[in-house]
């Protein structure tokens, strides 16, 4: 993923540069330079990658061997290391086997941090990808992509980006694992995805002018190419991430079948718009402590980099992503039924408690009390990953003096995804190499 973003982006001139009245010659020069470097780097990485990926890889996903199909057998996993829950509602057992289907542009990085922390605190076994921070997205998930995978191996938590493949995921976790995912209003998700990934979707390059998004939405069918490279980012991305055909005819009965399948498979579908309420439901479902679901907003864009969709554009974006819109409508309704069952009053109380606790942590952990631009982040371990060509993602500075009681929690809550993955021992050589090259070229 990081890789493909970069490859494509490298072929363009940098947006800031192209705005300036630069001499034409210089512009072409830098464009040519980018092109050559992009091409060289791509072939170099492809070569390396084909050596690094174990041969086991090929074909396992499609032609499943009996061995490959061996489900995770909980008997082989370590005995319960968790002490009985004490304090959470009704003395239930905290759940520690979790599949988080991480969707794109849905506050999922914040949730990832919560899962990393919980897993680390309890010494749980994560199913991590090998070499990069996603499971070969946008290809379908296959269990062979998991670092240190052995047939029959059991994992507690799976949470990195993937294109969902239920049977493959199912086999890696115990039968009573909890499946969760997060959705977001599809029009807003589309806007976010368009700005974050637009430049790596070649068919958007012919869109000229200032407001490419508006232009695209005027007549999506004219620009959209379902077979175009990275096209999935710009059409029903939720449907795609969940493993379905995102170009499905909206009139097809399959649409509703897929939605009901998501409902059967996932125990809780969180909503980005109601993130705190979602976390309260999650905490209740998993029988976790309040501390486990504390969070700071990670991977957020600078406010000035977030345009709001006007009424007309919002309608168009919703209509363009109609499969996602139906998915969202379904789960928005079921979400509020769950809140009803949980109790409105109780929900209000717990949300207030969560916000108070987050606010308290903010005062304890964060220097200046708020997120800052990348340039103002002092510790490179706190530097978030940036989309190519911009530095629009905000990060944090850890306070200099934090009491011993909170030092570790503060650091963990603020550590960005890539650094946290490294802390957890994930092999990220592709991502790291890519970062080196980017730093070198100052992309
Ligand atoms: C659970 O809580 C009770 C009192 O609320 C305490 O006496 C007991 O030691 C606790 N058990 C564990 C395992 O923490
Ligand atoms: C899930 O199953 C495992 C073993 O199969 C068991 O030890 C654990 O207590 C179960 N967890 C829950 C929350 O039911
Ligand atoms: C979700 O459902 C709630 C309650 O029915 C409603 O007020 C809200 O507008 C819905 N949100 C979206 C984005 O559709």
Automatic annotation (TrEMBL):
<keyword id="KW-1133">Transmembrane helix</keyword>
<keyword id="KW-0812">Transmembrane</keyword>
<comment type="similarity">
    <text>Belongs to the galactose-3-O-sulfotransferase family.</text>
</comment>
<keyword id="KW-0735">Signal-anchor</keyword>
<dbReference type="InterPro" id="IPR027417">
    <property type="entry name" value="P-loop_NTPase"/>
</dbReference>
<dbReference type="GO" id="GO:0001733">
    <property type="term" value="F:galactosylceramide sulfotransferase activity"/>
</dbReference>
<dbReference type="GO" id="GO:0042552">
    <property type="term" value="P:myelination"/>
</dbReference>
<dbReference type="Pfam" id="PF06990">
    <property type="entry name" value="Gal-3-0_sulfotr"/>
</dbReference>
<keyword id="KW-0333">Golgi apparatus</keyword>
<feature type="compositionally biased region" description="Basic and acidic residues">
    <location>
        <begin position="1"/>
        <end position="10"/>
    </location>
</feature>
<dbReference type="InterPro" id="IPR009729">
    <property type="entry name" value="Gal-3-0_sulfotransfrase"/>
</dbReference>
<feature type="transmembrane region" description="Helical">
    <location>
        <begin position="34"/>
        <end position="52"/>
    </location>
</feature>
<dbReference type="GO" id="GO:0006682">
    <property type="term" value="P:galactosylceramide biosynthetic process"/>
</dbReference>
<protein>
    <submittedName>
        <fullName>Galactosylceramide sulfotransferase isoform X1</fullName>
    </submittedName>
</protein>
<feature type="region of interest" description="Disordered">
    <location>
        <begin position="1"/>
        <end position="20"/>
    </location>
</feature>
<dbReference type="GO" id="GO:0000139">
    <property type="term" value="C:Golgi membrane"/>
</dbReference>
<keyword id="KW-0808">Transferase</keyword>
<keyword id="KW-0325">Glycoprotein</keyword>
<keyword id="KW-0472">Membrane</keyword>
<feature type="region of interest" description="Disordered">
    <location>
        <begin position="63"/>
        <end position="90"/>
    </location>
</feature>
